Prior knowledge:
By secondary structure, this protein is of the alpha/beta class.
Amino acid sequence: MKIIFAGTPEFAATALAALLKTQHEIVAVYTQPDRKAGRGQKLTASAVKQLALEHDIPVYQPLHFKSSTEEGLAAQAELAALNADVMVVAAYGLILPQVVLDTPKYGCLNIHGSLLPRWRGAAPIQRAIATGDAETGITIMKMAAGLDTGDMMYKTICPIEANDTSASLHYKLAQQGAEATVAVLESEESLKRYLDQREVQDEALTVYAHKLSKAEAKIDWSIDAIQIDRNIRAFNPWPVAFIQLDEQNNLRVWHSELSTESAPNAQVGEILAIDKKGVHVACANGSVIILTSLQWPGAKPLNPVQILQTQKLTIGQIL
């Protein structure tokens, strides 16, 4: 089949790499315009664009597909001229109007990092961890004009482990997404079969995964250790959980673990101990969390032994 692939970050590039190993023809790749990145703020191509260029695949980077502008209409016409059988979309970052969704012979398929209709929206991986879900997965859906509202064609299950961060779960789901896409597109016949058997989402079960903000990554010691630990894992690698040291400086918290100890008489945010396990901090309801990787401004993340050596924190200190 002739496939258009639309995506931007590494999550999408993993699926593109898998499709490149099949017999299908990737006729074009669509991705976000190059962005400034890194300390030098150099214009950087997306992970998907870099992979496409390595395989000599034409790359298109329209700003939008709006019918209300000449640029949008030109982008629509350009896509239609590719005469694709199907378009695969993964974390692309642009809204596709109905005219684009209807352009390929079999429409557009989306690789979504949750078990829809749970966690529609921008941050499904992070919200699943923060909420304490036992599992998540991948949903391949036929795209509709709404936000992640399309009919479901194929699902995979991925358990969420106690030490999973958004980074580790992102990697697992990227692999599952690639495998699921290849399975659905095994042949034109298999694609037709999955399209025929697709299931409408139950709106009553919808949960939205709202976009992350830096502000919500600030640790609130007045909630219990279980929830704080979930938040720390959910916000790794972005925006990274933090403790506000003063108006200008934050102490980033990369990793933590739950303590078996309790501190019913301690003040929330109080440092109870600093040892080779990490920094033990009192949380709500007498629960205790151990911070195992901390990063001071301008420095690298430190492990528990290094934290001990810095002597920047003291027992009894209120964070």
